[in-house]
Design goal:
The protein has one domain. The protein is built from three helices and five strands, in the order ββββαααβ.
Length: about 140
Amino acid sequence: MTQFAIIKKLKGPDKAEVEVLRGTACGDDCESCGVCHYASKIRVEAQNDIGAQVGDRVEIEARTSRVLGAAVLVYVVPFVLFFIGYAISAAMNMTEAMSVLFSFVAFAIGLGVVVLVGRSHKKNPITYNIISIIGHEAA
């Protein structure tokens, strides 16, 4: 998975802090509302083996499987457990209110799984590599 970023700070000869230019749901037309402009940028550390400098516009890459795995864990697992919880409680002939409560408990368990797995992955975070320099940001 590749994204575009701007180098904000060098953190050694082979590491750089980059600001990732993320797309938004509104198509990056922030002049219309101005809400998402600042929230659409995040900073990450990237391997800088090509010698990019501060201000360079670069293309960074992360392993797609790691990014998609994280997305599935965060967005899919809790909701799947929500529906499984509801199905199990309905199969046990619980009342509607109890089924809804049981499904929310299952959802909370899913969130707990996300937190636990997220903590274990802090030791092995998603890594980014700078793969090409596109240009230099105008000052």
